[in-house]
Design goal:
The chain is an all-alpha fold. Helices cover 56% and strands 0% of the residues. It has six helices and no strands. The longest helix has 23 residues.
């Protein structure tokens, strides 16, 4: 028999903040978009909204930054879902978080503006953890949650929504 799992109390809160941030950002973006007629398949959405081409990790547009941050959110969301559902241990979740910090470090940023400042705050909250290192990523901290919320707000104000893809569990 296995021992009962204990979960850090901040994980559900971090997930709730992430979900509410995405909901707010999604709601703001949806207000300006007409609803499609009939069902929209994931494949159709992917074809309709191609990912921007990134030329350099040192420079980027707001669209590139906001779209690329969705990959970080996808990693974090799926790691949290797997952990909360008991399909992975905390060690694996933290491994995914460390990967997310490295992906975050490669996101292109505009030279200036609210999106650039918010991305810098997110990066400061969760600096890249070197591959193979066992450092604790800042993902899930209060500083992280506030910075992600600020980035969601900045992206929404610039006309771009943050989006994460959930594909684990079920």
């Amino acid at each position: 028999m296995s021992s009962p799992r204990t979960r850090p109390s901040r994980r559900p809160i971090a997930l709730a903040v992430l979900v509410s941030s995405l909901t707010v950002a999604g709601t703001v973006g949806c207000a300006a978009t007409a609803a499609p007629e009939g069902p929209v398949l994931t494949e159709d959405v992917a074809r309709a909204t191609p990912a921007p081409t990134v030329t350099s990790a040192a420079e980027g547009s707001e669209a590139e930054t906001c779209t690329a941050f969705g990959d970080v959110l996808t990693i974090v969301h799926n790691a949290d879902a797997g952990f909360v559902d008991g399909r992975m241990e905390e060690q694996e979740q933290l491994g995914w978080y460390r990967l997310a910090t490295r992906v975050l470090a490669r996101i292109p940023s505009p030279d200036e503006g609210a999106v650039a400042e918010a991305l810098a705050a997110v990066s400061d909250a969760a600096p890249a953890v070197t591959q193979g290192a066992a450092g604790a990523p800042g993902i899930g901290s209060e500083e992280w949650n506030l910075a992600v919320n600020d980035l969601a707000t900045a992206c929404a104000a610039a006309g771009y929504d943050l989006a994460a893809e959930g594909f684990t569990g079920g």
